[in-house]
Amino acid sequence: MAQTIVEKIISNNVGYQVRVGNYVLVEPDIIMAHDTTCAWALSPFKKIAKRVAVRDKIVIVFDHAYPSPNVQAANLQSEIREFAREQNIPIITDGICHQILVERYVRPGCFVLGADSHTPTSGALGAVAVGVGSSDIAIAMATGKCWIRVPQTIKINITGKRRKNIFAKDVILSIARLLKSDGANHRAIEFVGPIVEKMDVAERLTLTNMAAELGAKCAIVASDAQTEAYLNNQGRGADYSLIKSDTDAFYERVIDFDVSEMVPQVAIPHQVDTVVDVQEIAQQRIKVDQVFIGSCTNGRIEDLEVAYKILHTNKLADNIRLIITPASNAVYCEALRRGYLQSFMELGAIVTSPGCGACLGRHGGILADGEVCVATSNRNFQGRMGSAKASVYLVSPEIAAKIALTGYITDTLL
């Protein structure tokens, strides 16, 4: 029977051929939790086990509120540290969990279970990566297993000729505009087509990351030469393998998405799928207080490079707070080596330690009442980055950098 890439990976994991709709018990290759979800998993874990089932599969990352910004976060992290010492599990503190996973752990064909909604990010390397709640991650840590219903797959075929000022962020925002926030509920999304084939892994990670905003259970890109090059660059070339869907696999839906006429996109408050052309609102000259470049969506070296090329010979707009947060220490060090960070700081930007930072509104750039923030992150929900009376707009790194220079929402520096 012909299979999609998602069906193949699940079949390989359980040891028999699965079909869409089957409920199966899988053994995840990676079980990930972070400084919030791991804390919530401790109580249910202790009710069913004393020791983790497979220690080497568990990855715990402190990233959402690290270094701890308040006593509550510090206490939660202290509980996790005690648990990690008891179980002999290292705690990683040098980047966002999703970035750490793709840099060090994820390989084509593996199954990732993560206690975070943006776990589908890892699918850019040809893996099935599913986000779950803390109780599910507690069970997985205790038993080494989890159940999953084999999902239908929506294939999105991205075609056309992409303009130079169009990035993966614009593409996925435009797809969100089309499918809406529930358009892929409980489905897998497979991104294919000539545009995806030309994208490097950094851009593919943006696609799979924001597939979560469409309700997707997981999102995936078949492994290829781009995947192999990325793994080689990470010193993990041996982890590469080719895995792709059969040519006659069945898809619930196939969507052809032509980017030829696309212009830069912006998600306006307070929904990710409320997306318009930046040009449509530029004439309103919406004043911006803060620009945030970072997150698991657009905090990689490729994103910082885009911002650097626009920012380094210019001057920040008056009263703009520009916050730049590399996604990991590896990204931070590379940006430091290239001179990006010094340039950003000389410009007047605030460069923070790697992590989630301002994205989720716990530290590193919390918004006040009435403030407007433009961010390269993945969510603009009401209250997401601080005050419920603030507004968040989502854009690509290029548009974010231009806005930092102009002080209002625009796609041009003229």
Pick out its properties.
414 residues; 5-stranded parallel sheet; alpha/beta; Aconitase, domain 3; 3 domains; 15 helices; globular; 18% strand
Structure characterization notes:
The protein has 414 residues and is an alpha/beta fold. It has three domains: 22-148, Aconitase, domain 3; 151-262, Aconitase, domain 3 (2-Layer Sandwich); 265-406, Aconitase, domain 3 (2-Layer Sandwich). 34% of the residues lie in helices and 18% in strands. The protein has 15 helices and 18 strands. It has helices spanning 5-14, 37-48, 71-87, 97-104, 134-143, 168-179, 194-198, 201-210, 225-233, 278-282, 295-298, 301-311, 329-338, 340-347, 397-406; strands at 23-26, 30-34, 58-61, 91-92, 111-114, 128-131, 146-149, 153-159, 188-192, 218-220, 253-258, 265-267, 275-277, 290-294, 321-325, 350-351, 372-375, 391-394. The strands form five sheets. It has a five-stranded parallel β-sheet, sandwiched between helices. Helix 2 crosses helix 5, helix 6 runs parallel beside helix 8 (201-210) and helix 12 (301-311) runs parallel beside helix 15 (397-406). It is globular and about 60 Å long. The model has no long low-confidence stretch (mean pLDDT 97).
